[in-house]
Amino acid sequence: MAGASVAGIGVSVDRQQLAYRVCMPDGNALYRSTLGELEVHVPFDALEPGMLGALIPLLGVSYFAAGQPIVGPESGLVDRLWIVKKGTVRGGPGPESHPGDEVLGPGECFPVGALRGHRATAFAYRAVADTFCWELPAVAFHDLLGKSERFRSFCMDHLALLVEQSHLARRAEAVASLDDAAGMLAPLRRAMAREPVSCTVDTPVSQVVRTLREARVGSMVVVDASGVPVGIFTTPDVLERVTLAQAAMDTPIRQLMTPQPVSLEEEAPLIEAALLMARHRIRHIIVTRDGRLAGVISERDLFALQRTSLRRTTEDIHASTTVAALAEAAGETRQLARHLLAQGVDAEHVTQMTCALNDGLSQRLLDIIAPRHSVAKRVRWCWISLGSEGRLEQTLATDQDNALIFASDGDVEPSRRALLEFAGEVN
Question: I want to staple 64 with a disulfide (CB 3.0 to 4.6 A). Which of 68, 276, 361, 392 is the partner?
Answer without folding.
Answer: 68
